[in-house]
Amino acid sequence: MRPWLYDLLRCPSCKTRTPLSIAAESEHDGEVVTGLLTCPDCLTKYPIRHGIPRFVAPDQDYCGNFGFQWQKWKDIQIDRLSGHHLSETRFFADTGWDKGWLKGKIVLDGGCGAGRFADVALSHGARVVAMDLSDAIDACRLNTEIHGERAGLVQGSLLDLPFRDGVFDAVYCMGVIQHTPDPKAVMTALPAHVKAGGRVMYNFYEEGLWRRLQVFKYGLRLITPNLPISITLGLSKFLVGAFYWLTRSLAKIPKIRILNHIIPIAAVHDPALTPEQQYAWTVLDTFDWYGARFEKRQHHQQVRALLEGLGLEDVSSAPGIARGIKPGESQ
To answer: Which class does domain 55-206+298-325 fall in?
Structure first.
């Protein structure tokens, strides 16, 4: 565990301001590899394994499918490891941040998965706290270790954040909010941990036309979230095998390509990817569709109103995206 990361943490159980005590069992280069964090007030204990503080009890992890998928496909969305720039392009398009702004900033990646966007922020000089509820955090550790001490990792919940208030220059939560049991609670909680003048950015599944077109997807989702992971994976591979080449053909025809939204796979046909990567990414995204326990869509206007109600300034939104700035002078 990075020494600087320890200074940002607090007990998520009782929210005390009293620092957690730390007992190291093994260390490497001055960092705790295995050990135990203990809250001096409520006495709750949190293990440290592989240098990652773990604030998640077994009954809190409602997203084992994500842990599985990011262990299985841990490289494909990492630009640096897969020879594309799709994650960087999406990161800066969605956040609206300048690349140079990130250097030296302390940034929280809420729901980091395998580290797709954490790797982008780290590559541009940020100090990133990458947090995930699932075992995906271990895939993120492997993917971001090249960035050295600027990468801090935490296994924790967006609904019980293990951080002190006002410690981050920016928080982003991308591709995650819709898969939590209470998106409003997540979006309400995160800004408290941002410094004055700090930035907040969310993306999410937008409620609207596409949801109504995807009747086959949502018909299958009546049963798939309760299936064993192995069955969901097999179903995803079967559906992609059955429909992928049809979606590839339709994607080449203007106006007709809209029919791909009806077909029950998450087809990816981006020319920046090799044909093999497009197929694998389609299997990944299709598994993501059907394996998630929760999928709760938002209207971006309502998210904008939520952020304005929290007192954020310069709030803007568009389908699937909302941004704001915490009041006060940045430090």
So the answer is: alpha beta
